[in-house]
Amino acid sequence: MRRKVDTNVSRLSHERVSRRTILKGAGLAAAAAGVSLATPWRARADDVTLRWWSPQSSPGQLASYKKQIATFEAAHPGVKVVFEPTSDEGYSAQLAAAFSAKQQPDIITHLPSFAVQTYYAQGLVEPFDDVIQAIGPDKYYPGANNVYKTADGKYCGTGIGNTAADMLWVRKDLMQKAGVSEIPTTWDTLRAACQKMQTGGIYGVPYPYGLNSMTSLIIIGFIHRAGGNIFSPDLEVAINSDATAHALDFYKSMKELAPPGATNYSWGESLTAFVSGATATGIYAGRVLKNVHDQNPAIADFITATTYPTMSKDFPAWTFNDFPSIWIPKGSAHLKEAKLFAAFLLDPPGYIEQLLAAPGHVLPVLKTIAENPDYLADPIIQKYKAEVNLMAASAAGGYNLGYETAKHKPNSKANDIIASNVLAEMVGRVVINGENTKTVLGDTATKLADLMKG
């Protein structure tokens, strides 16, 4: 569902601030013409401090953020930016406390798009239309901002990148050793391959089985890859289905192929299991590439990725893209400066360096960056060109709980549902506790309906 973006230059904090104004203010080169724009932007008499939150804070990313902040501050005398890391599992509670205490940050990045939609529906997010206009809608991939379109016709944020969060990673050397001739494309062939490769202390899969967001998000993908949905396109609860039962049955069958600690796995543990060589396959985004390069280069020539197998060839691939975001919480005392910084975050060369802090993990949301020679020249991007291109295509066509398919309405309750762990609880009850699937699905459907009403 694509809507045309208004091409009129909008107002930023009661001033007309166009892309040209932002670039002048930042003292950066105009992206299209390469012209140096030297007129500096001046802060108000009293200093401004912008607080920036993000759950993405690896050492490489922190180094790139530091450079972006320094460049922005140099162009904006009197403005300081302070980076404050959050966590994938803890941001919901952290933000609830911040909003309650009226201590919310001025800008937030890398939270999933469905979280932004939820906060916008609660009146906690500034509209972002004018920032998108300032960045330049023509620079985005077509439809890139659809997931940020709100029920009232505005945009609640934009992407800082795309992520193909549940790719299948495999070790070609282990496949060859086990006599697995083809990368699996269905659940049956995946299970058979993992059974053959599970030997000598190496396990088949690093699936999460804990009560956390990764378990919830991963099982959503399996349900879709069996032909199901969590909700109907009109947002009626649809989880009590044969497709969900099939997904849970398969997920349970793979438990014996996961390391013993998988009952406590979340994102970090699952990633480390594959990168370290503890599992023959992985289920993760492109950070695998950088981590293997840095932590286990001995397997670097043997890893590759593909879209995750489906229940059968009758079902199309479905990739989870959390659509990492840029957005501005309602109540910022420095709205104009926050919007300037938000637009600045997507400017090269800083944006390119930020992406290349973990090459292939957060993928460019702007086609102008994806085509930029400085981005394409990165050694990891070059080495794994086929994998990066596949992740980019898969992510561009990806979905999440806030936007399950192109036919679905945006689900502003998606963040509350993930935070509730109701889907992870469903997995635990069936897979770990061995409870009756039909009973659990009925209970889960009731809980989802209650959350949608809340």
Structure, explained:
This protein is of the alpha+beta class and 454 residues long. It has two domains: 11-163 and 322-396, Periplasmic binding protein-like II (D-Maltodextrin-Binding Protein, domain 2); 167-320 and 406-453, 3-Layer(aba) Sandwich (D-Maltodextrin-Binding Protein, domain 2). Helix content is 41%, strand content 9%. The strands form three sheets. Strands 4-3-5-10-6 form a five-stranded mixed β-sheet, covered by helices on one side. Strands 8-7-9 form a three-stranded antiparallel β-sheet. A two-stranded antiparallel sheet has the order 1-2. A hairpin with a 2-residue loop joins strand 1 (11-12) and strand 2. Helix 5 (129-135) crosses helix 12 (335-344), helix 8 (213-224) packs across helix 9 (242-253) and helix 8 (213-224) crosses helix 19 (422-432). The chain is globular and about 65 Å long.
